[in-house]
Predict the 3D structure of the following.
Amino acid sequence: MNRTEIRAAISLASVYVLRMLGLFMVMPVMALLAQDFKDYSPLLVGLAIGGYGLTQALLQIPMGMLSDRIGRKPVILLGLAFFAIGSGIAASADSLLWVVIGRMLQGTGAIAGAVMALAGDVSRDSERSKVMAIIGIAIGFSFYVSLLIGPPLANSYGLEGIFTVTAFLAMAAMPLIWWVVPNATNKAPSGDTLPVLEDIKRLFFDQNLMRLNMSVCVLHMLITILFMQLPALLSAHDYTMASQWQVYLPVLLLSIVTMAGLMSMARRGKEKGVLLSAVLLLSIAFLGLGILSQQFLLVMLFSIVFFTGFNYLEANFPAMVSGIAPAGKKGSAMGVYASFQFLGAFIGGAMAGVVTQYASVEVLFVATAFICLLWALWLKGLQTHSAAKRFSLPIELASFDANVLSEQLGALKGVQDITVISEERVAYLKVNGNEFDMGKAQQIVSTN
């Protein structure tokens, strides 16, 4: 990567960390602190934890498309402003209902698509995947850090303190966007970075992509359900809110080690089996927490089991979506995927609230374990694909017929899928990298 790409990757990753810390820090503490509100109810707690997911899901695709019209930076700054305003409302809330309203307003800052598109605009095609990978690592990093710093911060300053810090983090990200993130020197092919409205319906009904979209929806439903109850379980075992990070730290570290074992098995050609095993680990974890949570060591064990499966699936689903998506449709596929991801957080909060309010925590966990078993059965129908490489080739021909050009490119060895966009003068290719000859492809799009 050149200096501009390194600067873009680090600054955009920093923006993501500042924003996601604010979203995640509240997860391990909300269920405990919400009890201080007069209008406390399990349903409102669930919505306070997962409510941001509904507005994120609804606005993820529109905000990305808006950035294509008015520019990336204006949309990102607008999203950060709404996020900061929502944080301020939640910080000053005197009722749990207003916390829910603040969280939903936080979700209107749906800037993921615009950030990824900007990352694509300021990076070369050959280096774009590295920039995206750095941003992806930053997102995962922010989740782990939030679990460690959220409880001590909330113990000292309460929910007001957490949301106030969140608002300041969002405002701190604004100067980074305006002055540090490089201005776009080119425009990345939109099919690789942004959702396209006419593609969404087609991709929505693709069976393999729908299995992955529903899977990430369930996965984020599960993580929201877990954090509705795990803080209370730890409190029951004499871990105060300020000391719960002492549990999360070894749980996360051990789960990363065990996840590495799953990834090693997947690399040996057992990807489908490992995928189903990870889902079954989630089922085992919830069943165990539902019926064997009286002993602290078992709570630790089942938490490690949960995060082993969660970490593996969270890391691998995006790559699988990217691999399955047709050529030139990755931006649309990832936009739909992200919408389902955030929708899962909302469903998880609502489900946990309703079941806990009208039944019990044990019923919630056992029911969730059963959902995981149904999920595993449904996921068996997923057709996994070998890793494919993607290229976007600018068409330099003075005039061309898109159908003829598609046939010529399709005749090349190793080409799996082609999309030619005449208006953009771009050919998107999905290829087997071991067989594909880039030189021949470039010759086709550059000579009459």
